[in-house]
Design goal:
Length: 266
Amino acid sequence: MNDLNLFDLTGRVAIITGGGGLLASEHAIALAAHGATVILADFNLERCVATVETLVKEGINASAKYCDVTKKDSWETLLNDVVTEHGKVDILINNAGFTNQSKSANFDASFENFPLEDWNAIMNVNLTGAFLCCQVVGKHMLQNGKGSIINIASLYGVVSPNHKMYPDTGISQPVAYSVSKHGVVALTKYIATLWAEKGVRVNSLTPGGIFNGHEGLFLERFKQLNPIGRMSDKTELRGGIVFLASDASSHMVGHNLVIDGGWTAW
């Protein structure tokens, strides 16, 4: 086999959650460039549709679906719709989550004053949502005897936030975000070792800080703390996504692929 064929995703069907967010379109572009059909799913269907319309104009084979990742019946409906239209699901990217771009009501509250309601909201989307989609779509993959699940984790699922970086920047990383992302890595390892012999591979991908118009004090501090001296461009996860989705990573199970410019090496 030609080594390039290891990355071939022709005929494969992928679901990407958080479809209207910053990274979903990048994941879609990467998978579609290697032949996959892509379905973007989001609670905010209007934003998801707008993302897909942009992708379609660029020649990407993509469509938009509604999904509330915190509800099992919503996942079951999404899966049924995709299987009815495309016959199967080969790739699942759990990308939905509360972040500094999509905050819970009190995302910026200090640890001492962090409301239980926000803790529950963040855990429900970031971790319970990942559990439900792995459960529902993973069951379908098990029936087919194959599939690749990629859970999007975070630097702060590997190490603690550097608390000294955030004062006076207007940016914060709440306790529930970090704990939920640590949970995503643990969930990945649990399911990966459970399903490895059944043909379903489960891995996670940890992005570094993604540049999204950051400026000022936060950006300068981040540059000084990262070995590569900058934040990541959103396009720099494409290679990792294709690798984990494709046969190129056929022996990779339960791994957390860290693409962070060296942040966690220091």
